[in-house]
């Protein structure tokens, strides 16, 4: 599967709310980061909207799959649009990684209210040994409105 198709598949899983399958796309050392602002500063020295390692991401998914995600009752319906995709391969450490940058627009429908979220997303993808697949080592989501009031941002981007 191409890196481009993989990112479309990730968006499809998000829109279907298939949280278990979506979580399987991440490596055990993954970082899921949504900074306040442009994301140029060290995430450990600045306030973030989200800065999760794999364990914290797994906790979020567990709540979404169970009955503990009160902010998602009823669950949001979303459509993820991905555009202006740029993919670059490079060597990092002992192996190849693929960096993908894209613009996105997420439309959320919840309780008869529609909210739009626009921004830029950066993925670091690593190949799955012995397969024609990918895993996400890092995902950084930079919202256009990342420094503004976001309301109840309780779904996954």
Automatic annotation (TrEMBL):
Transmembrane segments: none annotated. InterPro entries: NTF2-like_dom_sf, Rng_hydr_dOase-bsu. It comes from the Bacteria. One of its GO terms (molecular function) is dioxygenase activity. Keywords: Dioxygenase, Oxidoreductase. The keyword Oxidoreductase applies. One of its GO terms (biological process) is 3-phenylpropionate catabolic process. Pfam families: Ring_hydroxyl_B. PANTHER family: BLR3401 PROTEIN. Belongs to the bacterial ring-hydroxylating dioxygenase beta subunit family. This is Aromatic-ring-hydroxylating dioxygenase subunit beta. It comes from Paenibacillus sabuli.
């Amino acid at each position: 599967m191409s890196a481009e198709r993989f990112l479309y598949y990730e968006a499809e899983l998000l829109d279907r709310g298939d949280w278990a399958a979506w979580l399987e796309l991440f490596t055990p050392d993954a970082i899921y980061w949504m900074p306040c602002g442009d994301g140029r500063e060290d995430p450990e020295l600045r306030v973030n909207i989200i800065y999760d390692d794999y364990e914290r991401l797994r906790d979020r998914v567990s709540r979404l799959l169970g009955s503990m995600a009160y902010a998602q009752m009823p669950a949001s319906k979303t459509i993820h649009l991905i555009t202006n995709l740029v993919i670059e391969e490079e060597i990092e450490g002992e192996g190849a990684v693929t960096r993908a940058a894209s613009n996105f627009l997420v439309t959320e429908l919840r309780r008869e209210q529609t909210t739009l979220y626009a921004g830029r997303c950066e993925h670091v993808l690593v190949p799955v040994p012995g397969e024609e697949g990918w895993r996400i080592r890092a995902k950084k989501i930079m919202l256009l409105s990342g420094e503004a009031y976001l309301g109840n941002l309780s779904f996954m981007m």
